[in-house]
Structures are given as structure tokens and as C-alpha cells.
């Protein structure tokens, strides 16, 4: 049994959906059971976020225009996939589109948008795409049935925008889906969304379809979870930056998690966690080249002589620096800082603290930086703890990932020698306690130079399997 996830690009048009469905057919043809997890059509989640924000601000005409575009795109796709105007698929799409319009109108009247209503609104992306995938499969002779995450048993916490599966999901999912699978029907389960115990729609965070797929895979005891991509598996770095970038045949759960966290757009950072506990492999597969094995993610991947496996850069970062002698010996300052940032929903990418403890530097996404900075200032400006506040924008965070770094001497020296040879100065350095990443912050303008130099220093254009 395999769970297959298709991202927004692979759901982005009639052609793309048909191709994705044909990838499912390749497996079901051989008697394999498959559960399918589609994302929203490309761009739709962003559009829905914009629509909800504009309704809240009273720009209803703009919101309605955008809804019309979403409506046309989905109805055209259904039509091109062969659905008649009277078909159940079209009826279902029309009902969903009506309900989206009403919800947006409600937001407009109330001028109020909670995290809970935002989850409801963005859920329409996947609720509209899943019936299209089911239709495409049926048209190819694969019996299919579409369900929402909640209908499929994915119960979550009520942390809207960032929900987590509850333990009972792992029992409910098989009880909801086994019947279909046993009858040879392919369940098509909306990615990204779940439901609280009370039946309120939640989302698992941006890119959450990966997470939906791995939760399903774990719950169903799948043999493997495949996330189909429009690239060849996971690469040593972004091939647009370094054309010599190579495909990585194998990675560990921890490595891919570090890479996801540091901005390689491979996977939702928590996606491997359900698989890790059960030892279920994840495969990142190329939709354009389905025979290519892609990247296999397991607990014990084949090692590489290279030591380092990948280098990634988050370009749109910023550094916030806070300091003051009053911080020395006051451990609660750090937890207070994190409380303030959590309250603003800011993710901290890197943190480092000087050994005198009189200074803490944080790297955050630039889009969060100003908000985070202002919140810290207003919280601490009148405290005895923190006296100086500085904000540097135009920063990039570079991360180097690989299990071979663990316990290997000289990796850091080689890394920073390569960076220094380019005349790049470092603003801060952090090493994860897992010792499988080193990350550092530099000027954004140096990002590409740094990535290229590191890729070369560790010979990532030529991967060599280790001897054991
Ligand atoms: N559609 C959602 C997003 O754009 C979930 C996903 O694509 O994984 O974030
Ligand atoms: Mg996605």
C-alpha cells in the first residue's frame, strides 16, 4: 500500500491532474493499493489568503473577482476532465463555491477574520481540488472516492493555522479508509486540512499536504509514502543556483527535516515525524521521470564520503540582536523572548548567545522581522534586562546538513575556510545539538557565493558512497 501526495503544481491544470492521475494508475494497475493526497491547485491557497484579508478590510469587489477566477478555473478543469454540467462533481464544486462566497461575505460584513475562519476559507483550495483528482482517476478507470481530511478521520488539535494530529487520528483513519481500500477504491483525501473533535476545520500549516500524507501513511501502515515533485528528488542544493547540484539517493529522516526547516522547499518540516516512529520510508519522486528512483528517506540511509550532503540558503532573513548586562544570569530572559515571538507567530530560524550571556542574536524571516522587533522592544524597553535592540535586514541564513558531520572533526574548519576564502564575513554561527547541521548568517548579497563555495569545498558535484 502506498500513499501518494501531489503538490499544487502537479494539480495546477487539467493536463497536470491527468498526468498525476496516470502516476496513480501505474501503481494500481499492478494491484497496488494507493491512497491519494492532493494539494490545492497551484496558487489557490495564496489567493484564498488574499481574499480573506481583503474581505476583512472591506474590499469585497476584489474578493468577489478573485472568487470568480477560482470558480472559472475549477469549473473549466472539471469540464476539460469530461464532467457534464449535471454531474455530481460539478454539483459538488458549485456547492463549495457558493459556500466560499457566503463565508467571504460573512467576513466582509463582520470585518473580522479569526484564525479559525481563515482555516475554513483556505480549506476550500483542497476541498475543490480533491474532487477533480477523483474525477480524473475515474476517467482512467481507477475507482476513486474523495473525502476531506476530517471525513478521512484526521482529527487534530484546535491550534488553527498550525494544527497537529491527535493520537486518535491513527485509529480513526484506518477505520474510515480500510473499507474503501478493500473494495479496490482509491481514497482521495484533501491534503493540508483536518478537523477538531467537534468537527471544525483546521489546517496543518503551509505546505501541510506532505504532513497529511505521512499521517495517513503511518495510520494505514503503508509500505511507503511518495511525494511527487516537479524536480528530481532532493538535491544537494538549488540547481538554479548551482547547475552541478546532484540528486541525493538517500537521506535520513533527520537530514530531510533539517533541510526542510532551513528552507529547502522539499517537505513540511514535521512531515517525516509520523513515519519515523514507525520506520515507514518516504520517497521523493519526480513526476516528469517516474522511473527515476528519486530520494529515499529512511532511518539508516547509505552514507556518503562527502560528510556534508546539502547546503541550503534562506535568502529573506533578518537578524535581531538584543543585549544588556542585566541579562547575565537571568535564564528566564530567553524564555520570555520566545514567549513574545510565539505570541506574534514568529518562527526563529537560528539563535545564538554570547558566552557572557549579555547578548542574544536571532534570525527570523524578513517578513516577520519588523513585527518581531517591535514586539520585543515594547515588551522589554522598560525592563532592566535588555538595553540595546538592533535589527539587520538583508541577511541570508545558510545551512549545511549531513549526518557525516556528527563526530567528524574538521568539517567546520573546511566550511568556514571555504566561506572566508570568498571574503564573506559571518554575522553569526549556530550548530544544532543534533550535530547534523551548521548554520550561519551572512549578508544576503553573499548568499549565492557562499552556497557555491561550500558546494565545491565538499565536492557535492561528485557524491561518493562511503565504504561501509
Ligand atoms: N495548499 C497548501 C499550501 O499551499 C498546502 C500544501 O500545498 O501542501 O500551503
Ligand atoms: Mg505545496
Could you explain how this protein is built, in words?
- It is a single chain.
- The chain has 468 residues and is an alpha/beta fold.
- The chain folds into 2 domains: 229 residues, Acetylglutamate kinase-like (Carbamate kinase, 3-Layer(aba) Sandwich); 148 residues, VC0802-like (2-Layer Sandwich), CATH 3.30.2130.
- The chain is built from 13 helices and 16 strands.
- The strands form 4 sheets. The chain has a 6-stranded mixed beta sheet with strand order 2-1-7-9-10-8, with helices on both faces. It has a 6-stranded antiparallel beta sheet with strand order 12-13-11-14-16-15.
- It is globular and about 70 Å long.
- The model has no long low-confidence stretch (mean pLDDT 94).
- The site of aspartic acid has 12 residues, from loops.
Named CATH architecture of the largest domain: 3-Layer(aba) Sandwich
**CATH topology label of the largest domain:** Carbamate kinase
Radius of gyration: 23 Å
Strand content: 15-25%
N-to-C CA distance? 31 Å
Tell me how many strands there are. 16
Q: Cofactors and ligands present?
A: aspartic acid, magnesium ion
Percent of residues in helical segments? 25-40%
Features:
single chain, 468 residues, alpha/beta, VC0802-like, 2 domains, binds aspartic acid, binds magnesium ion
Characterize this entry briefly:
This protein has 468 residues and is α/β, with parallel strands linked by helices. It contains 13 helices and 16 strands. The site of aspartic acid has 12 residues, from loops.
List the helices and strands and how they pair.
Blueprint: E1 2-6, H1 14-28, E2 34-38, H2 44-56, H3 60-80, H4 88-110, H5 115-139, E3 144-147, H6 169-182, E4 186-189, E5 193-195, E6 201-203, H7 209-220, E7 224-229, E8 250-252, H8 253-261, H9 273-278, E9 282-286, E10 295-298, E11 310-323, H10 332-343, E12 348-353, E13 359-365, H11 366-380, E14 388-401, H12 411-421, E15 428-431, E16 437-443, H13 447-457
Parallel strand pairs: 1-2, 1-7, 3-4, 7-9, 8-10
Antiparallel strand pairs: 5-6, 9-10, 11-13, 11-14, 12-13, 14-16, 15-16
Helix pairs in contact: 1-5, 2-3, 2-4, 2-5, 3-4, 4-5, 6-7, 12-13
The chain binds aspartic acid and magnesium ion.
The site of aspartic acid has 12 residues, from loops.
Amino acid at each position: 500500500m502506498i500513499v501518494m501526495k501531489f503538490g499544487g503544481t502537479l494539480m495546477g491544470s487539467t493536463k497536470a491532474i491527468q498526468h498525476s492521475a496516470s502516476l496513480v494508475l501505474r501503481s494500481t494497475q499492478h494491484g497496488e493499493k494507493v491512497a491519494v493526497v492532493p494539494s490545492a491547485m497551484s496558487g489557490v491557497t495564496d489567493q484564498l489568503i488574499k481574499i480573506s484579508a481583503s474581505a476583512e478590510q472591506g474590499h469585497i469587489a476584489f474578493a468577489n473577482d478573485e472568487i470568480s477566477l477560482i470558480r472559472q478555473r475549477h469549473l473549466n478543469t472539471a469540464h476539460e476532465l469530461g464532467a457534464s454540467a449535471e454531474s455530481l462533481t460539478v454539483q459538488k464544486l458549485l456547492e463549495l463555491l457558493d459556500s466560499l462566497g457566503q463565508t467571504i461575505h460573512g467576513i466582509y460584513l463582520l470585518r473580522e477574520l479569526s484564525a479559525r475562519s481563515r482555516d475554513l476559507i483556505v480549506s476550500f483550495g483542497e476541498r475543490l481540488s480533491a474532487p477533480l483528482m477523483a474525477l480524473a482517476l475515474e476517467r482512467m478507470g481507477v475507482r476513486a472516492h474523495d473525502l476531506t481530511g476530517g471525513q478521512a478521520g484526521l482529527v487534530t488539535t484546535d491550534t488553527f493555522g498550525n494544527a497537529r494530529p491527535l493520537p486518535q487520528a491513527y485509529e480513526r483513519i484506518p477505520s474510515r479508509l480500510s473499507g474503501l481500500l478493500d473494495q479496490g477504491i482509491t481514497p482521495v483525501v484533501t491534503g493540508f486540512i483536518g478537523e477538531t473533535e467537534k468537527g471544525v476545520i483546521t489546517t496543518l500549516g503551509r505546505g501541510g499536504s506532505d504532513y497529511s500524507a505521512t499521517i495517513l501513511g503511518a495510520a494505514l501502515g503503508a509500505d511507503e509514502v511518495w511525494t511527487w515533485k516537479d524536480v528530481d528528488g532532493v538535491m544537494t542544493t538549488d540547481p538554479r543556483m548551482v547547475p552541478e547540484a546532484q540528486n541525493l539517493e538517500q537521506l535520513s529522516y533527520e537530514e530531510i527535516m533539517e533541510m526542510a526547516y532551513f528552507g529547502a522547499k522539499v517537505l513540511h518540516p514535521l512531515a517525516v515525524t509520523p513515519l519515523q516512529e514507525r520506520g515507514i520510508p518516504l520517497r521523493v519522486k519526480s513526476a516528469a521521470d517516474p522511473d527515476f528512483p528519486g530520494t529515499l528517506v529512511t532511518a539508516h540511509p547509505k552514507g556518503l564520503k562527502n560528510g556534508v550532503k546539502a547546503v541550503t540558503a534562506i535568502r529573506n532573513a533578518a537578524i535581531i540582536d538584543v543585549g544588556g548586562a542585566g541579562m547575565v544570569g537571568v535564564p528566564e530572559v530567553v524564555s520570555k523572548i520566545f514567549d513574545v515571538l510565539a505570541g506574534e507567530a514568529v518562527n526563529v530560524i537560528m539563535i545564538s548567545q554570547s558566552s557572557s550571556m549579555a547578548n542574544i542574536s536571532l534570525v527570523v524571516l524578513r517578513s516577520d522581522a519588523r513585527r518581531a522587533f517591535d514586539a520585543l522592544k515594547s515588551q522589554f524597553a522598560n525592563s532592566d534586562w535588555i538595553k540595546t535592540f538592533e535589527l539587520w535586514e538583508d541577511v541570508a541564513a545558510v545551512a549545511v546538513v549531513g549526518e557525516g558531520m556528527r563526530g567528524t572533526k574538521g568539517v567546520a574548519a573546511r566550511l568556514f575556510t571555504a566561506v572566508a576564502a570568498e571574503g564573506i564575513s559571518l554575522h553569526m554561527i549556530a550548530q544544532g545539538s543534533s550535530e547534523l547541521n551548521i548554520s550561519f548568517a551572512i549578508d544576503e548579497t553573499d548568499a549565492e557565493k557562499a552556497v557555491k563555495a561550500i558546494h565545491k569545498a565538499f565536492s557535492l558535484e561528485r557524491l561518493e558512497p562511503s565504504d561501509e
